[in-house]
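agent> Task received from the user: take the single chain below, predict its 3D structure, and emit structure tokens. No templates, no multimer pairing.
agent> Plan: (1) validate residues, (2) run structure prediction, (3) serialize to tokens, (4) report one or two observations.
agent> Step 1 OK, no nonstandard residues flagged.
tool_call: predict_structure(input=
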Amino acid sequence: MVVDLHKPIGEGYTICPYDGSGCGFFVAAQDGKVVNIEGDPDHPVNRGAACAKGASMRQLSADNEGRLQKPRYRKAGGAEALSDVVNQGVWRQRICPICGGKPDFAFLDKERGGRWLLCSRCDMEWLFQRLQCPYCGTQGQKALSYFTNDQGLYRLYTCEECRSHIKAIDLRKTQAEALLPLERILTADLDRQAVGAGYKAG
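)
tool_result: status=success, residues=202
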């Protein structure tokens, strides 16, 4: 049995905008609103089929009440809302207490010089031992060391056990407030030097 997909109400034709395949679709509209989208069975690419994205193309229509009308923006540092539930006096793990991500940056706080790790995924900050590798967990003093620049502002912590490194900034040496996510980019040269010395990012 052949079903005629051509609708008597305001039928149009379109090409799927999602990728370069160029799948063809019939678009049926009534009273100026899209009421149905179906694949074109005569189209040489999709032959009437529709992937999940193509089948949801109706969501792009201007009459869709759920369609976003302007870009959405999520402020950085979303983990701050959950930071109060983390007991910083107890949590000393090598992974983020919020999302389980690994750290990719560190800082020494202004008050006591305690080392805090920064999550690579959600930017959550948590206190961590200074004499321990945040990646393999070794505490052997012979395996752990750090290098610093002339001003002592930046540090490059290295571990000989796992040959990993992590960058850090000493906030006791800063004059202005440091934007930690930005410091990741500003210290890219430290990554280059570490890789050149045979260390890898954790």
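agent> Step 4: summary for the user.
The first strand starts at residue 11 and ends at 15.
agent> Done.
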